[in-house]
């Protein structure tokens, strides 16, 4: 899942990004509304965690622009105000969910995951395919009933492949969904991660390489 965190309190923004990365999400971070508009114009995000009171461009205007562009991106709006009228106003301009500060990180993570599921065709919370069972919320993977321990990026790649439901996913798509914008696009990190993932999942191999196209399960 690819997430953009937009928050002018840099310590909070960086803490949220670090926590979401530990949950196997690819996360970019910006600290003002102008930078947010630049990022959503370049990258495809599943979810934008958007502070409402931003410098340069207000969070409301960022949200309106995302809606105006007709993007499948979901918006989780944050605000220091817990007033019901503010929450209603945020939802009316196009936000998909609303979370007042201070918030519990576990709740933020759960809301981001729930919104992420809504950017594509609805899939069950627990994904199952080819004898593999993946639970994004519990960060658990089982193959034929046996638990498989995966690193965050391995988990992220497997989740993208599982969500593709048998269609081919290119290395570029995996790089976009499982890594942030600071990753060198010419790196071989995708190939190495897939190789490690295959080894951990065991025999017989379930990740198929489609020459010149990508990977599928």
Question: Any overview of this molecule?
Answer:
With 217 residues, this protein is an alpha/beta fold. A hairpin with a 2-residue loop joins strand 6 and strand 7.
Write the layout of secondary structure elements.
Layout: E1 2-6, H1 10-22, E2 26-30, H2 33-40, E3 47-51, H3 59-68, E4 74-79, H4 84-92, E5 97-100, H5 105-117, E6 127-129, E7 132-135, E8 140-143, E9 146-147, H6 152-163, H7 171-178, H8 189-201, E10 208-210, E11 214-216
Helix pairs in contact: 2-3, 6-8
Throw out a few tags for this protein.
five-stranded parallel β-sheet, alpha/beta, four-stranded antiparallel β-sheet, 217 residues, 11 strands, 8 helices
- Widest beta sheet: strand line-up: 2-1-3-4-5
Q: H/E element string?
A: EHEHEHEHEHEEEEHHHEE
Work out the helicity level: 25-40%
Please indicate the percent range of residues in DSSP E strands (runs of 2 or more): 15-25%
Q: How large is the count of helical segments? A: 8
């Amino acid at each position: 899942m690819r997430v953009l965190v937009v928050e002018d309190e840099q310590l909070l923004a960086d803490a949220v990004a670090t926590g979401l990365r530990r949950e196997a999400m690819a996360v970019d971070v910006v600290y003002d509304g102008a930078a947010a508009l630049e990022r959503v114009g370049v990258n495809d995000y599943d979810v934008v965690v958007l502070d409402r009171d931003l410098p340069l461009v207000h969070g409301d205007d960022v949200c309106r622009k995302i809606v105006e562009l007709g993007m499948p991106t979901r918006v989780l709006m944050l605000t220091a105000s817990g007033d019901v009228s503010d929450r209603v106003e945020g939802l009316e301009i196009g936000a998909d969910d609303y979370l007042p500060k201070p918030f519990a990180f576990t709740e933020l993570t759960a809301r981001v995951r729930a919104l992420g599921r809504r950017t594509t065709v609805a899939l069950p919370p627990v994904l199952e395919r080819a004898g593999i069972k993946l639970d994004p919320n519990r960060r658990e993977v089982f193959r034929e009933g046996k638990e498989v321990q995966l690193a965050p990026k391995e988990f992220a790649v497997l989740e993208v492949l599982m969500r593709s439901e048998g269609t081919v996913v290119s290395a570029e798509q995996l790089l976009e969904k499982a890594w942030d914008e600071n990753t060198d696009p010419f790196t071989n990190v995708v190939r190495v991660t897939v190789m490690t993932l295959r080894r951990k999942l065991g025999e017989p191999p379930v990740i198929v390489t489609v020459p010149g196209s990508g990977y599928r399960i």
